[in-house]
Write a structure and sequence with these properties.
Elements: H1 2-26, E1 27-30, E2 36-38, E3 60-61, E4 72-80, E5 89-96, E6 105-111, E7 117-123, E8 141-146, E9 151-157, E10 164-172, E11 175-187, E12 190-197, E13 202-209, E14 217-223, E15 230-231, H2 237-243
Antiparallel strand pairs: 1-2, 3-7, 4-5, 5-6, 6-7, 8-9, 9-10, 10-11, 11-12, 11-15, 12-13, 13-14
Length: 246
Amino acid sequence: MKSKVFLLLMAISIISCNKKEDVKAVVSKKDTLNQEVVDEEYEDNAPDEVVLKGLDFPKTGGNVEAFVPEPCEIKMKAEGFLNDDDLKDIVIVLQNKENNTDSRATLVLLQQETGGYKLQELSWEAMEPEYTSDGYKLYDYEEISIDKEKKLRIELQGVGAIGNRETVYKYINDKLVLVRIETFHSGAGSYTSSDYDLVSGEVDHEITNTMVDSMPSVHEIEKFKLKGQMLFTNDNPDRVLENMYK
């Protein structure tokens, strides 16, 4: 009988020791009040977010899809003749399909005589992100096109203070150059259309009086000093306008 009691006490003691060891195993630190803090097992298995500026775009490709790596999607596309050959070129605007506030890439793909396309120009400035970081959509309407004069046009239309903006690019000496910016803004009692010629250095402001039924317009012509060519790859059109008279 005594031996059974002894064995029972030994078993209880072993179990108690094991429980104490288990508790000690999870107690890893104390806070400033000398209270025991238990570490929670934590493992972040979420992959790092990919931003488009971190991607390497191929220099050549057999088709347009070759220039659309994950997580990109084609937001806009235009086809036409941009350079001096008779091969139809393509311009695409790529967006991060997992993050609509990410920077957008605009790619100019020139068709090659041997087939396929060459990435001739890549701009992070021609297009703003679709949404701001606080979820505000910048423009309600966006379109890109290549006209009969071999010019790339990017048209943006917004509501309120942001207004409308159209930018025009043309190849000059093998560089895609920003040659014109057209803007439209409406205000109390009037609206203003401005046509900035970045080749001649002249801007035509057309101001329309909406307080009168006939809505008369006046033109104001101004000169501005050019600071060199504004390039598709480097120059943000909004910054160009902001710095024009500085």
